[in-house]
Amino acid sequence: MKLNNTIVKAILIITIAFFSLANHSKAQISKIELKATGLTCSMCTNAIFKQLKSMPEVENVKTDLNNNAFIISIKNGFNISPTIFKTKVEDAGFFVGSFIVMSTPEILQKNNYILVEGNASKLPEIKFQVVDKGFVTEKEYKKLSKLYKHVSTYGTSNGTNFHIKILS
Q1: Closest by Cα among 51, 58, 86, 85 to 72
Q2: Quick check: pTM over 0.85?
Q3: What is the pLDDT of residues 113-165, one digit of tens each?
Q4: Structural element, H or E, at residue 31
Q5: Which domains does the chain have, with CATH numbers?
Q6: Residue 22 binned pLDDT confidence (cut-offs 50, 70, 90)
Q7: What percent of the chain has pLDDT over 90?
Q8: Cα–Cα distance measured from residue 107 to residue 119, given in angstroms and rounded to the nearest whole number
Q9: Which value, in Å, is the radius of gyration of the alpha carbons in the chain?
């Protein structure tokens, strides 16, 4: 039995789309450690907690009051941008002081992640820090601007490209 060309093309397109989506979903952030600045009390922490917990992509949020940190677990199947977290923290009236991500290494193949320091390992999960303005303290950003002056795109924050430093 011969299949006509239209059916063969349709099957081929569906197959390619399926494998494309399957590969795309592997590149996922699983956990984020976000440190906020400007917090002075437990009500401040609660304001950020509520903002983060309201996100449909977020599975769980744990707080570390001693370090003004939030450990955020991301639900499977969600590909999420660091910008949304920065926006949520700013909507609560505060700023991001540090943004560390646990992810599959495939995320580095995305065009919007620019590696400025470290080596991507072949581990099943990597840890990296977003080092752009708004994801580190102002003091840290000034120091990093000097360190990464050789990276032509560093300092040109557009909200879609993220410069990262591999931590492990």
Answers
A1: 58
A2: no
A3: 999 998 877 788 899 999 999 999 999 999 999 999 999 889 887 778 899 99
A4: strand 29-37
A5: 27-166 (3.30.70.100)
A6: very low
A7: 54
A8: 14
A9: 19
Nearest to 168 by CA among 131, 113, 109, 128: 128
Query: What is the maximum alpha-carbon separation in the chain?
Result: 74
Q: What is the mean pLDDT of the chain?
A: 84
Q: Alpha-carbon distance 72 to 75, whole Å?
A: 10
**Residue 106 contacts by C-beta under 8 Å, 6 or more apart in sequence?**
23, 26, 27
Residue whose pair of structure tokens reads 């646990």 in the numeric block: 102
What CA–CA distance (Å, rounded) separates 119 from 18?
Answer: 30
Amino acid at 21: L
Q: Give residue 48's pLDDT band: very low, low, confident or very high (50, 70, 90).
A: very high
- Token digits of residue 26: 């592997």
Closest CA to 26 of 104, 124, 102, 100: 104
Q: Looking at residue 59, what is its pLDDT?
A: 95
Tokens standing for 69? 């940190």
Which pairing describes strands 126-130 and 162-166: parallel, antiparallel, or unpaired? antiparallel
Asked whether 58 and 91 are in contact (CB, 8 A), the reply is no
